[in-house]
Amino acid sequence: MDIEQLMPHVEALVFASERPLTQIEMTEVLGLALETPVETERIAACLEAIREKYDADYYPFQLKEIGGGFQFLTKKAFHKTVLQLNGDKHIKKLSTAAMETLSIIAYKQPITKSEIEYIRGVSADYSIQKLLEKELIVIAGRNENMVGKPLIYNTSKNFMDYLGINSPSQLPQMKDITDVQIVMPTNAEEAIPEDALVVVNEQGSLKQAS
């Protein structure tokens, strides 16, 4: 079967799936459906052709590679329009604490609860539980090298789906989203008012001269 014949089958699979489909899944499903072996390279060629097709301006959606697979997603220009269909019920809102915890996990994963709490300075029990319930993070095992072998957390496939990325390595780099300048500690001598007359006593401490 040539690319032109195979392409509609690939397109139909992506369209019908409620989750991103991998090339391996497409290869297996199409091999069974068409009763003939299908090479992964041909699937890749079809996906590239479908991507180019829907990149045209007059289509409101496009083929995106997210979460390790491929899915049709509405283009950004139409997000607000589609949102009116279902309102806010499909938007998973997070508290500031949960967002902070999720950000730490995203950039520091794999990470334990104690490490998260060390960075935030407060307990992370509630935030971690909410993120697990919303399936934005997963328990990835235990840290065998730490006392007590605590659980370690990673972001989930759902997290990547929401952001439209394939792996945490595609997250924005910290240097690209922050503009934090390092403030060096002030030298003790520089902190002394210019109009103050200061002498050093025998113990090396500072005192104002009378």
Question: In short, what is this structure?
Answer:
With 210 residues, this protein is an alpha+beta fold. It is 43% helix and 15% strand.
Write up this protein.
This protein is α+β, with helices and mostly antiparallel strands and 210 residues long. It has 2 domains: 3-85, Winged helix-like DNA-binding domain superfamily/Winged helix DNA-binding domain (Arc Repressor Mutant, subunit A, Orthogonal Bundle); 96-177, Arc Repressor Mutant, subunit A (Orthogonal Bundle). It contains 9 helices and 7 strands. A 3-stranded antiparallel β-sheet has the order 3-5-4. Residues 180-188 and 190-210 have low confidence and may be disordered.
The percentage of residues in β strands lies in 5-15%
| Spans where pLDDT lies below 50 across 5 or more residues | 180-188, 190-210
General shape: elongated
CATH topology of the largest domain, anyone? Arc Repressor Mutant, subunit A
Radius of gyration of CA atoms, rounded to a whole number: 27 Å
Q: List the helices and strands in order.
A: HHHEEHHEHHEEHHEE
Number of helices, counting only DSSP H or I runs of 4 residues or more: 9
Question: What is the percent of helical residues?
Answer: 40-55%
Secondary-structure content class: alpha+beta
Number of domains: 2
Could you give a short account of the major beta sheet?
A: 3 strands, antiparallel
Average pLDDT value? 81
Distance between the termini: 98 Å
Strand order in space, largest sheet: 3-5-4
Number of strands: 7
What do we call the CATH homologous superfamily of the largest domain? Answer: Winged helix-like DNA-binding domain superfamily/Winged helix DNA-binding domain
Could you name the CATH class of the largest domain? Mainly Alpha
